[in-house]
Fold this protein.
Amino acid sequence: MKTILVTGANGQLGNTLRRLEKQYGSRYTFLFTDIDSLDICDRAAIQACIQSNAVRYVVNCAAYTAVDRAEEDEERCLKINRDAVRYLGEAASEAGAKVIHISTDYVYDGTNSLPYVETDYTCPMSAYGRSKLAGERALQEVCPDALIIRTSWLYSAFGNNFVGTILRLAKEREELRVVADQAGTPTFAGDLASAILSIIDAAEAGGFHPGIFHYANEGVCSWYDFALKIVRLAGADCRVLPIDTKDYPTRAIRPQYSVLNKRKIKETYNLAIPHWEESLEFMLHTLKEER
C-alpha cells in the first residue's frame, strides 16, 4: 500500500484526516506526524522520514496560523510557512513523492468584488499571508508538480477555531458583537479532508494534476452571518449583533472579501462541494451526538 505522510496531524485538518483513516486504511498506510515526532524545520529529518517510509504522498497540514502574533514573530512564521515547506518539497521531489500543500485566502488583499480565481493577483496584507505566499513559491521552485490548495475560514471539531469560540462565548454571554463587513466562505475540515483523499485516489488512477487550486464550501457569508447561524443551530440564548471591522481592531489586516472560486478544482477532480450551511449543520449535529 502507498504511504501518505500527514504533517501537522494534531491540527484541525490533520486530526480530521485521522478520522478518515479507517475508511481509507485498506488502500493507504497513513503516517501522522507533528512537532513531537517530525520537526519539519529540520531538513535532514524530513529527508530521512520520507525515504525510510517510502512515502508516496505528502499532505502538509502544518503551518504557523497565529495571524495576529505573526505580525511580531514574522521570522518564526516564515521558518514554518516558507522554509519548512521548501524542505518538504525538496525531499518529496528527490523521493518521487507527490505533495499536497494547504495554503490560504490571506494571499489576496481582499479588494475583489468577484470570487477570486487561482490566477488573480496576489498581494497579502499581513505577515501570515506573506509567509504563506512565500511558502507556495518556495514549494513550486523545488517541486513544480506540487498541488497547492488555498482554503478559507477553516473550522472543525478540533482545536481553536471560530465555531468553537462562538459556541463557548454563546454559553458565557448574553450578547456577541461580530464583524459584518468581511465576506468569505467557511470551510468544514471534514469536506476538505475528503477532497484531499479523493485527489489522492485520482492520482492513483493516473489523474494527478498539479498546480494551485481553491477549495472552500459553497456560498458566501460574513463573520456575523456565520456566528448567527452557529448560535441558532446550537439553540443558544444569545444575541448576535453586527459591527464594522473598525470597531474590532486587530494587529493583522484581514481581507475584506476573500470568496474563492472553486470551479477549477470541481472540474479537474470531479468534486461536489457542499454549501457552508449544510456542512456547519452536519458538524454541529455530529458534535451533539458524540457528547
Observations:
- The longest helix spans residues 74-95.
- The radius of gyration is 19 Å.
- The first strand starts at residue 2 and ends at 7.
- The chain has one domain: 2-161+187-217+258-274.
